[in-house]
Amino acid sequence: MAAGRQGRGEMSGGATPLFLAARGGHAEVIAWLLAKKAEVDRATEAGATPLYIAAHGGRAEAISRLLAGGAVPDGEAGIGRTPLHCAVSGCHTEATDPPGGGGAVPRPEHVWLCVLLGNVHGARRLAAALGYSRELWKSGGKLCLGLLAVCSLLWASCIGLLWGHSELRPEASVASLSSLRYCPASEPV
């Protein structure tokens, strides 16, 4: 530990004992540290909070202890991701029980991220928490249109690359056909 950080119980990178307990999913240690008045939302130098790292690892009991201890469910980490987003991207939506992560507000992009990652159960839970809203379906339509546009651009790029080969150009095939001479079937070649 750095000499100036020892008194605060902080290690290099800003990790606190509560952060390390959350990362390991040690719910009893979390409860003990919270009883000793540990800062529940203290972020590391990278901006990750104990709740964020617990969600990243899918530590359901640690998440519930941190939320009970007053952790902000929608607090963004230094990279702009919420703990719920982190749980969704790690396919740990089962750790966010009740749906919405104990106060976290699910967004339509969380549902579609679950779908893209193959987490259908998580997508259904989050969509139900959103009430299958019109906003959810609008964002899904935009996502589908975006994927269609990307596929169209890739297809056009492939055609452009293939068109660059001389044997596929129309003028090249006409030139090669004109060099052929007519040979009736009765004459030997």
Automatic annotation (TrEMBL):
- Could you tell me which InterPro entries the record lists for this protein? Ankyrin_rpt, Ankyrin_rpt-contain_sf
Q: Does the keyword Nucleus apply?
A: no
State whether keyword Disulfide bond applies.
no
Q: Where are the transmembrane segments?
A: 143-163
- Intervals holding ANK repeats: 13-45, 46-71
Checking PROSITE patterns in the record gives: ANK_REP_REGION, ANK_REPEAT
* Top-rank taxon: Eukaryota
Keyword annotations of the record: ANK repeat, Membrane, Repeat, Transmembrane, Transmembrane helix
Protein name listed in UniProt: Uncharacterized protein
- Tell me which species this is from: Prorocentrum cordatum
Lineage of origin = Eukaryota, Sar, Alveolata, Dinophyceae, Prorocentrales
